[in-house]
Amino acid sequence: MIGPYEITDPRTLPCEFCDQVAAGRVMVELYGGSLMVCMSCYELLRNNSRKPYSKAMDKFSMRACGYHITAKMARLRR
């Protein structure tokens, strides 16, 4: 555990959101999909989780789920 984060994968691997190599990744589950992300991407996704039309959420949903998220789907899956 590092600070407030529970490290899900302690290995040094690329972040599935920004593709940067990170020492320790955290699993983020939103809108029915999940990604293993670095700490900075975790903060970005946490801050934008209630903004389904933001670029960050669109990128997350395309990488994790394979489709663009809509406001209706975001309300249903929260």
Task: Give a concise summary.
With 78 residues, the protein is α+β, with helices and mostly antiparallel strands.
Give a structural overview.
With 78 residues, the protein is of the alpha+beta class. It has one domain (9-77). Helices cover 35% and strands 27% of the residues. It contains 3 helices and 3 strands; from the N terminus they run βββααα. The protein has helices at 39-48, 55-64, 71-77; strands spanning 9-14, 21-30, 33-37. It has a 3-stranded antiparallel sheet with strand order 1-2-3. The radius of gyration is 12 Å and the shape is elongated. 27% of the residues are buried.
List strands and helices in order, with pairings:
Elements: E1 9-14, E2 21-30, E3 33-37, H1 39-48, H2 55-64, H3 71-77
Antiparallel strand pairs: 1-2, 2-3
